[in-house]
Amino acid sequence: MQFINPIPFVRDISRSKEFYQKRLGLKVREDFGNFVLFETGFAIHEGRSLEQTVWRKEFATEEPYGRRNLLLYFEHDDVDAAFEAIAPYVELIHPIERQAWGQRVFRFYDPDGHAVEIGEPQDLASPDNSQKS
């Protein structure tokens, strides 16, 4: 058994693909119209078609797919530069903050209300990872 990736449901696949390309700098590996796989392994799927595939019906609701119960986590070598490039275009949850484990991160919502976290890379193998600046 091997975990591959989460696949968030999105309302507007074009809008979400553009968001992840332009704001996070992800490169599309494959685009199947209603499913987009990025080079990092992250993927998004148009919600209505995935509802039909999984449950054999579409749910008649316009509620946001993001329900504040999932955090999409990304790392960036320069978290300050990422913040400057992304923050003006999103609803921030909070600006860059140092977490209890020493990592600097910021969090925001994507177009579907999914919570996204961008953090500086963590060397989890290093016994001194809490001393990062």
Keywords:
133 residues; disordered C terminus; 4-stranded mixed sheet; 29% strand; 20% helix; 2,3-Dihydroxybiphenyl 1,2-Dioxygenase, domain 1; 8 strands
* Rounded mean pLDDT score: 91
Separation, N- and C-terminal Cα atoms: 36 Å
Computed structural class: alpha/beta
Into which percent range does the helicity of residues fall?
10-25%
The coarse overall form would be globular
Q: Characterize the main sheet.
A: 4 strands, mixed
User: How many β-strand stretches?
Assistant: 8
According to CATH, what is the topology?
2,3-Dihydroxybiphenyl 1,2-Dioxygenase, domain 1
How many domains? 1
Topology:
Elements: E1 9-10, H1 13-22, E2 28-31, E3 35-38, E4 43-46, H2 47-55, E5 71-75, H3 79-86, E6 91-98, E7 104-109, E8 115-119
Parallel strand pairs: 1-4, 5-8
Antiparallel strand pairs: 2-3, 3-4, 6-7, 7-8
How does this model look, in words?
The chain has 133 residues and is α/β, with parallel strands linked by helices. Helix content is 20%, strand content 29%. Strands 1-4-3-2 form a 4-stranded mixed sheet. The chain has one domain (9-131): 2,3-Dihydroxybiphenyl 1,2-Dioxygenase, domain 1 (Roll), CATH 3.10.180.
Q: What is the gist of this entry?
A:
The chain is α/β, with parallel strands linked by helices and about 130 residues long. Helix content is about 20%, strand content about 30%.
